[in-house]
Write a structure and sequence with these properties.
- It is a single chain.
- This protein has one domain: 3-Layer(aba) Sandwich (Rossmann fold), CATH 3.40.50.
- The protein has 7 helices and 10 strands.
- The strands form 2 sheets. A 6-stranded mixed sheet has the order 6-7-8-3-9-10.
- It is 31% helix and 29% strand.
- Strand 9 and strand 10 form a beta hairpin.
- By secondary structure, it is an alpha/beta fold.
Length: 228
């Protein structure tokens, strides 16, 4: 059996607020296989975002392990951690695009570390924007794009360095329901036709229904997993 792309083992995270310990994660065990599309569903405070940050190597656990391609990331130095983060594609609720750059420039930005020539970067960025349906908006800046178009740029940017998996934090939370449905059509297509592995946080039951597996969280634990 193939090794999971991501595995969490008895993952715990405790924050100290003032002098009070707050348990954000309480022993989470989760496996993400190649080609998975997982929706993590749960109310505010259930630990969804904390789990996503752990998987993306943006935060460190209090106890337990995060394994990416079988490697315990807590054992890595800063340079190796940076390499791991570059293999993860992040898509956020509020897009996080650079306002002064065009759509093309935003997608080219993460390619600066890939050692590609200027022409190679341009060609890859154009290809990614074509995949997300923005061929005619490449030269537009974020302020000239709709919310749905901005999120498509963000998805193209997340795919720029051919990541092992995509982490999506409420990717439709800042757009209308029709546009959200269109974005989810794109996400499903990336998963089913391109084989992109996706872990998505959402509070929306309908959007979670698009995933292959739903992981329900409550009070820092996974209390139910459902394959669809």
């Amino acid at each position: 059996m193939a090794m999971p792309i991501v595995e969490t083992v008895n993952l715990r995270k405790t924050y100290i607020l003032g002098k009070v310990p707050v348990n954000a994660l309480c022993g989470v065990n989760l496996k993400v296989e190649k080609g998975d599309f997982i929706a993590i569903l749960g109310p505010s405070g259930s630990g969804k975002s904390t789990l996503l940050n752990m998987i993306g190597a943006l935060d460190t656990p209090t106890e337990g392990k995060v394994l990416i391609d079988g490697v315990d990331i807590s054992t890595l130095n800063d340079n190796r951690l940076a390499e791991i983060r570059h293999r993860v594609g992040f898509v956020f609720q509020f897009f996080n695009l650079i306002p002064r750059l065009t759509a093309l420039g935003n997608v080219e930005l993460p390619l600066s570390i890939a050692g590609l020539s200027k022409n190679e970067k341009r060609k890859r960025a154009e290809n990614l924007l074509e995949i997300v349906g923005l061929t005619d908006r490449m030269k537009h800046k974020p302020a000239e794009l709709s919310g749905g178009q901005r999120q498509r740029v963000a998805i193209a940017r997340a795919l720029a360095n051919d990541p092992s998996f995509l982490l999506m934090d409420e990717p439709t939370g800042n757009i209308d329901s029709k546009t959200a449905s269109d974005i989810m059509d794109l996400v499903q297509e990336l998963n089913e036709k391109k084989g992109v592995t996706i872990v998505m946080i959402t509070h929306d039951q309908n959007l979670a229904g698009r995933a292959k597996r739903i992981v329900r969280m409550l009070d820092g634990t996974v209390f139910k997993e459902v394959k669809q």
